[in-house]
Design brief:
The chain is α+β, with helices and mostly antiparallel strands. It is built from twelve helices and 14 strands. The structure holds flavin-adenine dinucleotide.
Length: about 280
């Protein structure tokens, strides 16, 4: 199928993008990497009156350290994150997760901002951002605001972005010395969206885990922090008893739905398997 007719704008300044978003409201769609949007236009799941291409806007494509924060621009591609030494050194969870996103051709075009705005429940970046307690920076004609990642994902494909707002950057705290990051997922074939995935982060010192973050993808309508499992591991040695307690706690954290290929029980089982692997890696 072909998309319905639309106007196209490629502004050169952020303020022009924001003016277009305000003027056209819901009839405007931002175009970043196009890896999700173009398919939805071609299938006529979406029929905006105007596409606003953000490919020429300066300042959206950098990765920069600012004190304790690593800021990544909204238009930075998945592949640039995968290859960044700054990311590997300071936010290794992102470096581990990136190769799981689709295939290289898609990672060369798809962007961090586009993925977060899509809010696909099986996508890697939303779960990573929640586990890292990242801050999502958004802009509109009214100015900038910062949204905690944990507050950003509201429902299936639904975010806290308001009318006329766009993502400009994401801010991550640099990992501390005793902090460990682990990203794991189970897929049918390499490059597929995850059946179940887990973004995990914790401090590990004196043989005990602390500040544990376990955020699942693919098991709900949005990234799902496993709060009871996190509490079960807090302050504990990463031993078998702690893992068993955390796995049992997952039952109250997650209520996955079956999809075309995988039953809810199988997803629950996979979530438990990933938890055990993540704890072993966090303490390894
Ligand atoms: C075959 C295939 C497999 C894929 N597999 C995976 C996978 O395994 N994991 C995964 O996470 N993703 C996967 N994707 C999706 C891919 O990661 C996309 O790149 C991503 O979801 C959207 O990013 P984009 O830059 O291409 O955004 P676009 O497609 O350009 O835009 C997507 C949406 O976000 C909006 N948007 C874009 N930028 C902004 C912004 N800065 N602020 C606010 N709104 C914005 C657009 O208006 C649009 O509504 C796959 C895609 C394909 C085609």
């Amino acid at each position: 199928m072909k998309p319905s007719a639309f106007a196209y704008a490629r502004p050169r300044a952020l303020r022009e993008v924001l003016a277009l978003l305000e003027r056209h409201g819901d009839d405007a769609k931002l175009l970043a990497g196009g890896q999700s949007l173009l398919a939805s236009l071609n299938m006529r799941l979406s029929a905006p009156g105007i596409l606003v291409d953000i490919g020429a806007i300066p300042g959206l494509d950098g990765i920069a350290l600012k004190g304790r924060t690593l800021a990544i621009g909204a238009r930075v591609t998945h592949r640039a994150i995968e290859r960044s030494e700054l990311v590997a050194q300071h936010v290794p969870l992102l470096a581990q997760a990136a190769p799981h996103i689709a295939h290289i051709a898609i990672r060369n075009a798809g962007t961090l901002g586009g993925s977060l705005a899509m809010a696909d429940p099986a996508a890697e970046w939303p779960a990573c951002c929640v586990a890292l307690q990242a801050t999502i920076v958004v802009a509109s004609k009214k100015g900038k605001r910062r949204i905690a990642a944990g507050e950003f994902f509201k429902d299936l494909y639904t975010t806290a972005l308001g009318a006329g707002e766009m993502i400009t950057a994401v801010e991550f705290q640099r990992a501390r010395k005793d902090e460990r990051h682990v990203f794991l997922e189970l897929v049918r074939r390499r490059g597929d969206y995850a059946i179940v995935g887990l973004a995990a982060r914790a401090r590990f010192a004196r043989k005990a885990l602390s500040e544990v973050q376990l955020v699942y993808l693919g098991v709900g309508v949005k990234p799902e922090p496993a709060k009871a499992a996190m509490a079960a591991l807090e302050g504990k040695a990463a031993d078998e008893a702690a893992v068993r307690a955390a796995q049992a706690a997952l039952d109250s954290d997650l209520s996955p739905s079956a999809d075309l290929y995988t039953s809810a029980d199988a997803k629950r089982h996979m979530a438990r398997v990933l938890l055990a692997r993540a704890v072993a890696a966090l303490a390894g």
